[in-house]
Design a protein that fits this description.
With 270 residues, the protein is of the alpha/beta class. It is built from eleven helices and seven strands. The longest helix has 15 residues. The two termini are 34 Å apart. Bound molecules: S-adenosylmethionine.
Length: 270
């Protein structure tokens, strides 16, 4: 199986996504969604941003490489009675099932950044956006001191080196790379803007329990623990991540977790 697909189908990202719903709603509020707008949510997971987009009146298509998450998105949209929110399987590197210039807005929040071949991904997102439309990406930032960048950094230090030619998803959090990729897709540099934004993970249990969910259900952390177990370093990894989750937690109530994480919000105007 395509290793990118295998990674995201490995666990159950819905268990992490449950802690991301409030920030998903808040982010969608900033996107200027209007009734009838055609939105593609790429790397949509189980619909953390796709459902709020549909609730604001957009005609939403969620596309994700992981079939379990596509099914979870369909279930959630049905439960909420949203018949303007469809989901289908697809790969951000090749959206061949989608026509040119179809969408007013293409959104990818911590989604397309995880696909390989970033130049193809930029080209595909631009191709399916209509003239006058926008692409909005949310990407984690390499070496940022907040939660997800640090989880990925710590996890990679316990994992075997990636195969030759592998391009780190974190490069999508570097403005120079983003500009290179979108200008390579034909977008003038002045049409690309950047803002720092925050996504807060809210979890109804202590931080150690949120870490346990990452260990059990989040593909990249699951892989890191598998590698660490083989090298006899799983306890070190657990300790390092426990320190991280505890230090990042801003909740004053010890029974719950609230961890803000910084990301790069990119807007590309067609
Ligand atoms: C960190 S999750 C984020 C999900 C969702 N956007 C959210 O904010 O909850 C990353 C998502 O990107 C999807 N993904 C990874 N590689 C992809 C690819 N090549 N094409 C489409 N989706 C992909 C994964 O399956 C997963 O659902």
């Amino acid at each position: 199986m395509n290793p990118n697909k295998a990674l995201w189908q490995k666990g159950d990202f819905t268990r992490i996504a449950e802690s991301m719903r409030e920030s998903g709603e808040a982010l969608v509020d900033k996107l200027g969604i209007t009734r009838g707008m055609k939105v593609l949510d790429l790397g949509c997971g189980d619909g953390t941003t796709a459902l709020p987009e549909a609730k604001r009146g957009a005609e939403v298509l969620g596309v994700d490489i992981a079939s379990n998450l596509v099914e979870a998105g369909k279930r959630r949209a049905k439960e909420e009675g949203l018949n303007n929110c469809r989901f289908q399987e697809g790969d951000a590197t090749d959206l061949n099932q989608l026509e040119n210039r179809t969408f007013d807005l293409v959104v990818s929040i911590f989604g397309a950044m995880f696909a390989p071949k970033p130049f193809d991904v930029a080209k595909e997102m631009v191709r399916v956006t209509r003239a006058g439309g926008r692409v909005v990406m949310g990407n984690w930032i390499p070496n940022d001191p907040t939660l997800v960048a640090q989880i990925l950094k710590i996890s990679s230090s316990y994992s075997p080196p990636p195969p030759e030619g592998f391009i780190s998803p974190m490069t999508w959090g570097v403005e120079g790379h983003v500009i290179e990729r979108f200008t390579g897709a034909g977008v003038p540099k002045e049409k690309i803007t950047f803002e720092r934004d925050t996504f807060t993970f809210n979890f109804p249990k202590p931080p150690q329990e949120l870490l346990a969910a990452f260990r059990k259900y989040y593909g990249p952390t699951m892989n890191a623990f598998e590698a660490a177990e083989k090298s006899g370093r799983a306890e070190d990894l657990q300790r390092e991540l426990e320190d991280l989750f505890t230090a990042q937690n801003k909740s004053t109530n010890p029974a719950i977790t609230s961890i803000p994480a910084t990301f790069l919000r990119i807007t590309v105007h067609r």
